[in-house]
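G.,

No rush on this.
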Amino acid sequence: MNASSGIRIAYMIGGVQLLLHVVTNGNYGVFRDELYYLDCARHLAWGYVDHPPLSIALLALTTTILGESVHAIRLFSELAGAVTVVLGALLARELGGGRTAQIVAAFTAAVVPGALVLSGFFSMNAFDLVFWALLMWLLARIVRTDDPRLWLWFGVVAGFGLLNKISVLFLGAGVAAGVVLTPLRRHLALRQPYAGSLIAMAIASPYAFWNLANDWPTLEFMANAKQYKIAKMAPHEFIGEVALAMSPPMVLIWGAGLVWLLVPKWGGRFRALGFWFLAVTTLLIALKVKPYYLFPAFIVPLAAGGCAVEAFLKRWNKRWLAVVAFVWIGLSGLLTLPLAIPVLSPDGMLAFQAKLGMGPGHYETNPVGAMPQYYSDRFGWENMTAVVAGVFENLDRDEQARTLILGSNYGEIGAINYYGPRWGLPTASGGHNNHYLWGPAVDDPLVVIHIGGSRERLEQAFESVERAATVTATYAMPYESDLPVWVCRGGRVPMDDLWEAGKRFI
């Protein structure tokens, strides 16, 4: 078989990953952020407090056509994971890799747990995988062909990437380092790289104008998240979390790929990509962001790792070594699979995690549960909504017509808006991120049902505060269990003041 057969096999590997997601994606329920993004999709705009608009437009398209089932919500994210697998093989081919390199690149991109997690539920992070992989494929093609016109296409893809997630700016900074540190710097004397940058800025400009019109909420969100939300990590802790997310046995693949890129006699022609990866890693560590921001960058060392494995196999010319390599990748994927997608029951997952001697990662300052946050945040929402519905049903008819439901965070608010219609609940509101900009669903309520919060704080705003129920959840995040549901009456302050006091951009 020729090199193109490697790409065909990559399509099959991507298809298997897609099928695995489809089969398992309903096991643990809807994720916290998905509930929020569904609310965003019901309020289409050119921007949101904590993210650009592109992914939300895709979600709105999906739900309009297919509805809001968990399978419909996650369709595009799952497809993004499969596309990333194929792009890994295409990148390996662009780096000069043949059939074996392409298959290794696709196989590793399909099984590393970090990528599986990001493509396993709906968020802009799944599409980030695609944009970074496509941009690195273009950069490799620029290096190979020395065609400066490709910078224009780079700008187009980068612009849409920024409309999906502004972390593409980190990618751009890494590209600048890769260009300056390699012979590609000669392109700095040409107009095409600058034209590409202008194209990217023009495509992403609606998000910037939205921020300008709304007093730059994204900058406020980023500052608050850095100060109050993101857990502080030392560089070695950051690297350790990333290595774990990329599967420890896979270090042999991507580590070899990084060396292959940087050694002149091997893949040194593509050193710009190696320097790019090192620059992006250094930048993200310095900025103290969450480790998963680096996950999309690993498509480069994984693709280069395929080239390194292929070169090793050609040198030794032993067929059994190829079998060992693919078995190694497969077993690595199986070892970490339950940590990436819900193939086990919750109790089974906890038992598996305990056997490995592992605990959940701690990317935020909030307390963590027994399972990783990307699992825990899929539990408890429907039960919470049922409890709130019981409180609502106990109100008088006149009160129900003027009841405002307030959640403490966008997960609680989104859960009420997703599950609540089956119980006849009104739209929920809150001050968390974009919900603050949308305002309260009821301007002059007789009753406020408040999910979470303390009696002391609520009594400053209301004359009567009654604890009407308590929400419990077995596997949810700790702050979503033993959660009080308050019934508040007799507002002490105007709604505008109450709303302003509840603003939380974080």
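When you get to it, here's the other one too:
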Amino acid sequence: MFDFLIEVNNISLKPPRQGDDWLIRKFWEIGFDEADLVKLNKVRLHQQVVFFSDVMDASGRRLDKKYLEKRPDGEKWSSLTFPTEKPPRAFFSMWKEALLAITTGVRLGEYESEGYKTWDWRFDDNEENSRPRLLHLKGDVMDVYFKSADEQFVHMHNRWTRTRLDEPVEKVGQICSVKLIRDDTMAIVAKADPPPSPSHPSTFLEVLEEWGSEWMWEKLQLQGEDGWLEEAIRDNSLIAVTDGSYIKELLPNVNSAAFVLICSKGRGRLIGAFPEQTMAACAYRGELLGLLAIHLLLLSINKLNPTLDGSVHIFSDCLGALGRVENLPPHRIPSRCRHSDILKTIMVNCSSLSFKRYFSH
């Protein structure tokens, strides 16, 4: 109606390290009031940090001192994208005070997941290499440092001099924090094992768990050997049936849906049902919920095999719901459309399945 577009990009963020927390919450816990938190948050955005661990060094025990100073324009300190903020110098004075206050006596644990902080330095002590290396990652290339041969540093264990420039990047070894000794010589301040590589779902159930909203799948019953759903789609033998339910006299704010996916060649079956409590409850919404559940299940299977070919035949006893889902517009659900939340979820996420869908009453 007003010719503007809203994009909601939900990002699943979780603290990377044991004992970690949201940085702003740490500021709040030591007594900064709301007005000060607004100022600190502007600096936080400029410094590109989210969690407490982002401002700590690799050991998780000391402040990474680069965060005390204003991030230079053009430098990227995080894998996330942040809005542009230009906090005044006075805000940075409060920021330094806050960082020093919350990092005293801290001891964070190991990494539990890959974080968002950009680690530009790594220490590689792999036995396959002739000698240990300090690596400075710079996008697609890296500089390589070896133990210093300079007479000034030759007797110092922790001095590393730049020897090779702009070699192909290698993300190996431990992440580390460093300090500058002179232009081409660095010292390692702290090291830590890198965050574990993120695990990827291996079953459609793990995909559903990763998405959340587990309440929809609590009553799933699955029968058959592993992979039968993919096989049934591939040879066009998967049938999906759904039905909605609503009894206004008993539960006016509850509708529910049930669904069955079955292989016509006898490989297996999947059965599920769930209720939904909503002020918009009605029989039609219950029918749409069943179609939504089937589409999300099919999407979870497609996520594991993005090139899966074949088809699935979907049945419902509600012509209105079938027609609406089968003929969804490609880009936008009309604002006045009933139950647009369900329809938009199907349109946005399930309109590009790699296999075909057929609908029957």
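The chain has a mean pLDDT of 91. The longest helix spans residues 283-304.

Enjoy the weekend,
O.
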